[in-house]
């Protein structure tokens, strides 16, 4: 079996059909994860009784276990739970009518939520307390101060970490193949096995992921430069 | 005797030192004064090759280093003959005060640990820190850190100690303790060059004062002459400005 | 999809899975140790600015950070034997585990090299100057002054690499490697109690991660004893490279 460079290109083109799925999974899980993460972060920053501890445990547990476990637990556990509830109430609804993709999205959002909550929390905490005080001093209310003063600065600080999370979730989305969602990696597997050209197919997949990653990094670094205008110079 | 001849140094296109000659006799305390950007710190750093001059020669007694031909070994030897006290102390952050002072003795001078320890304790006692031997730099005040820095230089028993603005990173109330220590060791006949902004100190302690501006030595001489009857207009201007600044700060 | 949930299975599975924990830990340990070597080799050309090699190491790091580890696993597993066949080395008898370890070593090497570079860069330039000024050689200055500080600085990032590696070992089952997750697959299939087995497995990963994290925190506290406040300042986090998925230490709370 010799390396067939031509087939790398063939696979690459074939993989493009799975690109939207990968991007969809990534964007949805990061988007929903961001909402979850913000809520979790605020619960912890404002030290809401009981809830802050639940939030902390959620974050520790998710960060302490492989993403694959989250996927498996949701994929196997959630349908069982739904069916049990459905059965108990005598509904005709069963989990079988829910597409697999939904479980993938739920699980990845839960994963992303935990990581993003840490990004958001540290971003907010990194903003100098004096900024908030100055906002109050000129008569702003808390939501105004958060929205106009703290958040923009927190966003600038956390941009690199946000980009990391995004890339992490992009790469993580390859796990979806284990539950038969056809994203890039699953597609590569299919292309590889049907043609008996594993190496070529995975090279193509690697190039595709690499390309998207580099694009994200470049995009973020441009954004970072724009956003950090106020932060230039000074003694670092 | 330390002798600098024709020291030149450029950073990119900017020529910071334009050919400096300077002779320091044994036991001299030389103060280098001058406005910011005049090249005085760069000159000091050229002496132990933290900056490599583009041209010129550094000589300590018979040991001469021509920058064009300086080998790694030459530079190494030069550094063993000199010691430096930095503006922002540069104490080794992961070592205690005592370890900071011992480090050079053990690693560079290869003294046995016991002996190094004795010398280090002595040096630290001399700068008044006999009670802070086992403190890490992060737990010391700026003034104390700088005194450790001085002890570190002193313990090496170098031919000359180079002080690079030793008090300019300090809070005003801590300047005094450091100057007092420098004054004390100056009285012991140790050769030193001090780049400083402390006019009064330079006047009192230095045996020789050098005024630099724009990469050249404008004027040098004993303090009473340079402060009392400066010959050059540039020196007069500088002194006038500096004295005004003092009065503002009071 | 499997049988009814029964709690006892969770307890039943834990000891069975623990029997394979050592394999998981072996993969982690072996790949991290190799990864350190790889990381150092990859970091050197960039720290010393060696032409060509520098570019190669940039590409290396970019690739291993820019692609999913799953892809890397498959690439090495299917690609390496073919490449080696080209120079007539037969690796068809080499166990899967070796490929897994090799992949994870290359993968963590990329992250470790960034950690090394960042940490060395984070050591104050004045430290080296002071070392030179008391007459140390370049080597002495590096080993006695820069390295100890750099190791302490990079410890949190290193901890993250290790823990991420632990979690990533769960992917080795896709190649049929028999570590904990591989075992969980067989247990799940034979008993049809999937949920229980994954709960057990998650608990084990969780406990091991937490223990590792605590150990690293202890080590960090010890190594940074010269700078007690450093371990928790957020400003320091920003000097560090952005490695891996978010990797914040608990320290953020004190900001």
Key features?
heterotrimer, A: 236 residues, mainly alpha, MetI-like fold, 78% helix, 0% strand, C: 255 residues, flat, transmembrane transporter activity (chain C), ArtM/GltK/GlnP/TcyL/YhdX-like (chain C), Amino acid ABC transporter permease (chain C)
Query: Taking Cα atoms only, what radius of gyration of chain A do you get, to the nearest Å?
Result: 22 Å
- Name the quaternary structure: heterotrimer
What is the tally of helical segments of chain C? Answer: 10
User: What integer is the average pLDDT of chain A?
Assistant: 87
Roughly how many Å is the radius of gyration of chain C? 21 Å
Number of strands of chain C: 0
Shape estimate of chain A: flat
Quote the average pLDDT of chain C. Answer: 83
Specify the number of helices of chain A. Answer: 9
The second-level CATH architecture of chain C is: Orthogonal Bundle
Membrane topology (chain C): Multi-pass membrane protein
Protein name (chain C): Amino acid ABC transporter permease
Subcellular location (chain C): Cell membrane
Main location (chain C): membrane
């Amino acid at each position: 079996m010799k390396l067939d460079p031509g087939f790398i290109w063939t696979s690459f083109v074939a993989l493009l059909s799975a690109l939207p799925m990968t991007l969809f999974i990534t964007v949805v899980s990061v988007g929903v994860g961001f909402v979850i993460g913000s809520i979790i972060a605020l619960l912890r920053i404002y030290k809401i009784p009981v809830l802050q501890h639940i939030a902390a445990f959620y974050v520790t547990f998710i960060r302490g276990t492989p993403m694959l476990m989250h996927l498996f637990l949701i994929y196997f556990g959630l349908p069982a739970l739904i069916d049990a509830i459905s059965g108990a109430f005598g509904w005709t609804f069963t989990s079988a009518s829910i597409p697999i993709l939904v479980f993938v999205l739920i699980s990845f959002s839960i994963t992303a939520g935990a990581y993003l909550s840490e990004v958001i929390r540290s971003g907010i905490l990194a903003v100098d307390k004096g900024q908030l005080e100055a906002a109050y001093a000129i008569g702003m209310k808390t939501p105004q101060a958060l929205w106009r003063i703290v958040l923009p600065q927190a966003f600038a600080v956390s941009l690199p970490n946000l980009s990391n999370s995004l890339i992490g979730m992009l790469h993580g989305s390859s796990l979806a193949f284990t539950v038969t969602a056809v994203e890039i990696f699953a597609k590569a597997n299919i292309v590889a096995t049907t043609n008996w050209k594993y190496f070529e197919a995975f090279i193509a997949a690697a190039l595709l992921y690499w390309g998207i990653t580099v694009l994200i990094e470049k995009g973020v670094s441009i954004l970072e430069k724009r956003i950090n205008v106020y932060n230039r110079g000074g003694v670092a | 005797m330390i002798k600098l001849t024709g020291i030149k140094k450029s950073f990119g296109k900017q020529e910071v030192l334009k050919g400096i000659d300077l002779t320091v006799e044994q036991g001299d305390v030389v103060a280098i004064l001058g406005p910011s950007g005049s090249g005085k710190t760069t000159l000091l750093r050229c002496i132990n090759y933290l900056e490599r001059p583009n041209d010129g020669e550094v000589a300590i007694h018979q040991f001469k280093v021509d920058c064009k031909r300086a080998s790694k070994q030459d530079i190494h030897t030069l550094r063993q003959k000199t010691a430096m006290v930095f503006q922002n102390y540069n104490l080794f952050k992961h070592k205690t005060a005592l370890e900071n002072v011992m480090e050079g003795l053990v690693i560079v001078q290869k003294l046995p640990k016991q002996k190094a320890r004795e010398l280090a304790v002595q040096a630290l006692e001399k700068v008044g820190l006999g009670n802070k031997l086992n403190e890490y730099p992060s737990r010391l005040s700026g003034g104390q850190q700088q005194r450790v820095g001085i002890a570190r230089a002193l313990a090496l028993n170098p031919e000359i100690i180079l002080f690079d603005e030793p008090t300019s990173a300090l809070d005003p109330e801590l300047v005094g303790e450091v100057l007092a220590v420098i004054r004390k060791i100056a009285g012991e006949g140790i050769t030193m060059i001090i780049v400083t902004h402390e006019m009064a100190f330079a006047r009192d302690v230095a045996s020789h004062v050098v005024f630099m501006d724009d990469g050249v030595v404008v004027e040098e001489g004993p303090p009473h002459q340079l402060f009392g009857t400066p010959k050059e207009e540039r020196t007069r201007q500088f002194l006038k400005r500096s004295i005004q600044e003092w009065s503002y700060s009071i | 999809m499997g049988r009814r949930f029964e709690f006892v299975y969770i307890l039943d599975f834990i000891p069975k899975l623990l029997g394979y924990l050592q394999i998981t830990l072996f993969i982690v340990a072996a790949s991290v140790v190799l990864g350190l070597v790889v990381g150092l080799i990859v970091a050197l050309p960039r720290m010393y600015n060696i032409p060509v090699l520098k570019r190669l190491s940039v590409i290396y790091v970019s690739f291993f950070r820019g692609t999913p580890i799953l892809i890397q696993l498959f690439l090495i597993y299917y690609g390496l034997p073919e490449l080696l066949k080209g120079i007539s080395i037969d690796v068809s008898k080499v166990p899967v585990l070796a490929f897994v370890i090799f992949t994870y070593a290359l993968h963590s090497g990329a992250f470790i090299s960034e950690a090394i570079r960042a940490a060395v860069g984070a050591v104050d330039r004045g430290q080296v100057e002071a070392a030179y000024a008391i007459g140390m050689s370049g080597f002495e200055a590096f080993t006695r002054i820069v390295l100890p500080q750099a190791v302490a600085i990079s410890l949190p990032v290193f901890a993250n690499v290790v823990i991420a590696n632990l979690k990533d070992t769960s992917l080795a089952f896709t190649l049929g490697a028999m570590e904990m997750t591989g075992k969980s697959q067989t247990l799940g299939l034979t008993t049809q109690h999937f949920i229980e087995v994954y709960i057990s497995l998650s608990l084990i990963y969780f406990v091991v991660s937490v223990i590792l994290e605590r150990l690293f925190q202890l080590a960090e506290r010890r190594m940074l004893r010269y700078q007690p406040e450093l371990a928790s300042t957020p400003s320091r986090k920003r000097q560090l490279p952005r490695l891996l998925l978010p990797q914040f230490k608990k320290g953020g709370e004190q900001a």
